[in-house]
């Protein structure tokens, strides 16, 4: 089966500034793939190139087998785009906006179906510019899925949303994925990547520093658990592949231990370690701020 997305040695320069540097990866049909990286790393530039909105300086990209710069209307109707900025602040009601959008697709979902999927049925008659931030983001998602896209690009779909709305949007993305939609997601939320994606790539300073299964990113060594406890007023830590055995031995030798914890590094801890290794101080500050 041909991959849904192929990126080969993609490089994008603005003047002397290389913002995407020899990036290569593939996304299988039906896969949800997360692109992670600090502000300014090159995520949106990569995604916008795949959407056909930016011209690569060099390299080759294909979406559904087509060069996005040459993709005509029929190709465009097979992809869905939810850009980073809100695109839904119009003078139309939600229903009017979706009805207009539906006309450009050959086999659109019905407006009522889309309203239901994104949970906006009860706001269908409201002017989009009067919706809350979370509701506007849902309108963006509604516009992105209106044409039943085979590939959906989601650029930071849940930034700034409250935890409940984020989870609802995750459920929506999971449902689309179950229906076979290929999803390319950029996000700053590591829990979002863990929840939704099978594989992820980390891009730092325009370079793709890793592509792997979400639960393998950073390598086995970065995932070794740490057993931590307090003894004699001091905190003790030991990294071990066998935390249960270590805890059993400590319990046998020393009895009850104060503040005993087994800590398994999260994707976030591993990601911050990667920024430290590859990135600048500024990137780390942005990622942790
Ligand atoms: N039209 C442009 N002209 C010049 N430089 C640009 C242009 N668009 C983007 N850049 C630069 O390219 C770099 C990558 O930007 P990009 O938006 O791809 O990053 P990002 O990883 O999506 O960041 P964020 O997480 O902040 O959205 C940045 O340094 C940005 O300033």
- Tell me the CATH architecture of the largest domain: 3-Layer(aba) Sandwich
> In terms of structural class, how would the helical and strand content be classed?
alpha/beta
Number of domains: 2
Tally of helical runs: 11
Model description:
This protein is of the alpha/beta class. It has helices at 43-50, 73-76, 94-102, 111-117, 133-145, 163-178, 190-196, 219-222, 243-254, 267-278, 281-288, and strands at 5-14, 17-27, 32-36, 58-63, 79-82, 151-155, 182-187, 199-204, 207-213, 226-231, 234-239, 258-263. It folds into 2 domains: 5-213, P-loop containing nucleotide triphosphate hydrolases (Rossmann fold, 3-Layer(aba) Sandwich); 219-288, no CATH class. Helix content is 35%, strand content 27%. The strands form 3 sheets. A 6-stranded mixed sheet has the order 5-6-7-3-8-9, sandwiched between helices. Strands 2-1-4 form a 3-stranded antiparallel sheet, with helices on one face. α6 links the parallel β6 and β7. The longest helix is centred in the middle third of the chain and has 16 residues, at 163-178. Adenosine-5'-triphosphate (ATP) binds at residues 14, 19, 37, 39-45, 84.
Keywords:
289 residues; alpha/beta; Rossmann fold; 2 domains; 6-stranded mixed beta sheet; 11 helices; globular; binds adenosine-5'-triphosphate
Give a quick summary of the entry.
The chain has 289 residues and is an alpha/beta fold.
Please write out the topology.
Layout: E1 5-14, E2 17-27, E3 32-36, H1 43-50, E4 58-63, H2 73-76, E5 79-82, H3 94-102, H4 111-117, H5 133-145, E6 151-155, H6 163-178, E7 182-187, H7 190-196, E8 199-204, E9 207-213, H8 219-222, E10 226-231, E11 234-239, H9 243-254, E12 258-263, H10 267-278, H11 281-288
Parallel strand pairs: 3-7, 3-8, 5-6, 6-7
Antiparallel strand pairs: 1-2, 1-4, 8-9, 10-11, 10-12
Bound molecules: adenosine-5'-triphosphate.
Residues 14, 19, 37, 39-45, 84 line the site of adenosine-5'-triphosphate (ATP).
Membrane topology: Peripheral membrane protein
InterPro entries: AAA+_ATPase, ABC_transporter-like_ATP-bd, ABC_transporter-like_CS, ABC_transporter_ATP-binding, P-loop_NTPase
GO biological process, one term: response to antibiotic
